[in-house]
Amino acid sequence: MSSTVTRTRLAIVAAAAGIAILAGCSSPAPAGKASAASCEPAKGKVTLQYWNTVPGMDKVVDLWNKKNPNIQVETKNISNDQYGIIGNALKAGKAPDLAQVGYDQLPNLRTQDAFVDASGCSAATATKSKFVPWTWSQTSFGDTGVFALPQDTGPMALYVRSDIFKKYGVAIPKTWDEYAAAAKKLHKADSDLTITYFDPNNAEWFNGLLWQNNAEMYSYSDDKWHVTVESDQSKQVTEYWQKLISDKLVRTDLAHGSTQMYAAYQKNQIASYVGAAWGYSMFRDNLPRQAGKWTIVPMPTWGANGASGNWGGSTVAFMRGSKHLYESVKFNTWLNTDPEALALENELGGLYPAANAGLQLPALSKGVPYYNNEKIFDVFAASSKKVDTRFAWGPTQKTVNLALQDAMAKAAAGDGTLTDALAAAQTAALKSMKDQAIPAAAGK
Amino acid sequence: MTDIATRATRVVESSVGRHRRSNGGGPRAGTVAAFLTPFFLPFVLFYLVPVGYALWQSFRVVRRTGGQYGTSYTTFGGFEQYVEVLQNSEFWASIGRIGLFGIVQVPVMLFVALIMALLLDTPLLRLKSFFRITAFMPYAVPGVIAAIMWSYLYSPQLSPVVDLLKGIGLEPDFLGPGAVLWSAANVSTWLWTGYNMLIMYSALQSIPQELYEAARIDGASNWTIAWWIKVPIIAPSIVLTTVFSIIGTLQLYAEPAVLRQISSNISSTFTPNMLAYAVASGNNYQQAAAISVIIAVITFVLSFGFMRLTSKKAGL
Asked: What distance in Å separates the CA atoms of residue A372 and residue B232, rounded to the nearest whole number?
């Protein structure tokens, strides 16, 4: 029957199409070893692509475009799937000139050959002194190049419901020991009240706590990664929180930023929040009725070590395939160091700048009405300067974060401890690096 | 069933034959192609090609030259990814979890659907179309929305249900480590019972009334008719809904993924599909592909195994 013939023919066409597509995908794209790219200005007008997730960034770019007719920038908001979109674009060879990348994702993307080294542009290397030291250390991978410029940071501090502390006669804690003692007092005074909550599904936050205790998780030497997720410093942190969880002094049933979390704060069930600079607007916008009840103080410290932690923040990375590195450096530098740009980003996008100049913005020197007109940004600026500069992220950070979260959740449910979770994360780090053929070993 | 199918085939063949005589072969083949292309082209592009690509990917491994930030490439790795998946305890834990889920949730859901279909089919029930629509309504709600809705009912901070239960002295924890799997199962059951009911109900509608009359003359009660006449006749639909449910269970993703937002007792590797997603998000696309292929094989074996097992009894 001819229908059979047609069907066969169709199948052949289909198979051929399939093979053609498969063949197209099958050739690996060998690229040259990463080294500083050349930095020649273009002749004539240039258009740059810049992908980001910052609200209002298009308005910041409009400002640039008005002043720079020869270097026009087009923005695209990729907040619905930031790394998915960047990853797919890289695979398709259609990456933008500049893209927003979180600090913790820099090594991961670099192992995918995502970046171009802009250290061939003297203008790029010259920006080093303009940024808070730890941010430069991460974007330059320990001064081995310039792969991104820092944009914003999340220096950590302690948000305190001063009215609750006052009501029960508890002093605001300065060290983690005092914090644990305060936790006990508050819970004893009111059994519905806990000092804070521990979200086991928030590795990014927990990494900030590890960072504060100088718990370096990765280092690189002798052509391989040294994985020290499980270390004495990190164990000190996990044991501390495990004790609070075991003694039921912190609750573990709230996810960060969830409606449930705000509901618990609204019901006065939680007395403090270990958070980052960008969190100030979360409380202001979601808990308007608690205006005037909050104060922000430095993060509790580990004894004599006065270090602070950082949670979140992003960079603007120089992406591989960009044909206009010179212009990209120019725009990127303006975007992240110019006071006018920084002020607008802070106003529209709530960014807390990584540039030293940004810390002196008028908007960041004023008292904030929600927080009793206190100059809360002074606390964050001081915190920012106390963040350990040696801390580095791993090349498979996402996988490690997931493993850490899954094991921390088990611990919160009574199956194992947070210290076991460190071991699980250590194992996941080594295994995922092996899967990606990245040379790695356990220990220093 | 078989008879009807054979007859239908014969009718189609004879009409095709007639058509061929009147028109000849050439233009007809073109017509067939024209009608089939809109189906086959997307089918090949968006189904066969991705499946083939996943299969091909699952046999690749990542290698790297020039140290940590050197160039990575993929090469043929045989069954390396499959071995890693099969040795991964998280994978087996996720399979065990949905196995337990399926063994409990699928029979409960189909039993409820069957009872509802039989009730709708009795002459005793009034407001039939109202009940039919109401029972089917949840199916119109997208799975993610349903899960978000239920997550508010489960959440101790926000749920009126939890408050009510607390009022009578209970301390429910719908999101606890032991309960959360069943909370997810409840969402699936709520979503899919009406859909399965409708398939069974439409099968019931096609049963000729004469059978019931004959049974009544023989003295059969409503209950006897339901159990000994209706259920055996609609057995093929029950088998069909079971197969759909098995496939659905193995692909479980939306409900637990949404509940994960509010409960840390759902891990990133809770179901096989979530595991595949977690692995892919760590750039290990090859291993994610291997997981997908294994899930597909298990689905295939279970669905066809179940159909074979029941085909004689169900008269398929």
From this structure: 74
State which residue of chain A sits closest to B288, comparing Cα positions. A435
Cα–Cα distance list, B186 to A201, A398, B262 (Å): 23, 31, 16
Residue A300: domain span: 155-309+388-442
Give the CATH number, domain containing residue B198. Answer: 1.10.3720.10
> ipTM more than 0.85?
no
Mark whether A149 and A187 lie in a shared domain: no
Q: Is residue B256 part of a domain?
A: yes
Domain count within chain B: 1
Q: Do B158 and A398 touch (CB under 8 A)?
A: no
* Residue B126 burial (C-beta neighbours within 10 Å; 0-12, 13-18, 19+): exposed
> A120: helix, coil or strand?
helix
Does the distance separating the beta carbons of A405 and B264 come in below 8 Å?
A: yes
Mean pLDDT of chain A: 90
Chain A: residue nearest B54 by CA?
A22
The reply to whether residue B69 touches residue A28, judged by beta carbons under 8 angstroms, is: no
Residues 6+ apart with CB under 8 A from A325: A37, A38, A39, A116, A118, A120, A121, A318
A199 within a domain of the structure (yes/no): yes
* Residues in contact with B170: Cβ distance below 8 Å, sequence separation at least 6, in sequence order: none
Q: How confident is the model at residue B315 (pLDDT cuts 50, 70, 90)?
A: low
Chain B residues close to A413, C-beta within 8 Å: 176-177, 264-265
Handedness of CA A331, A335, A338, A341 (dihedral sign): positive
Residue-level pLDDT at B201: 94
Please name the amino acid found at residue A230: E
User: Is B53 inside any structural domain?
Assistant: no
| Chain A residues touching residue B62 (CB < 8 angstroms) | 435-437
Helix (H, G, I), strand (E, B) or coil at A322: coil
**Which domain CATH number covers A115?**
3.40.190.10
Stretches where chain A sits below pLDDT 50 are 1-34
pLDDT tens digits along A59-110: 999 999 999 999 999 999 999 899 999 999 998 999 999 999 999 999 999 9
**Contact residues on chain B for A399, CB-CB shorter than 8 A:** 278-279, 281-282, 284
Flag if B68 and A223 touch (Cβ within 8 Å).
yes
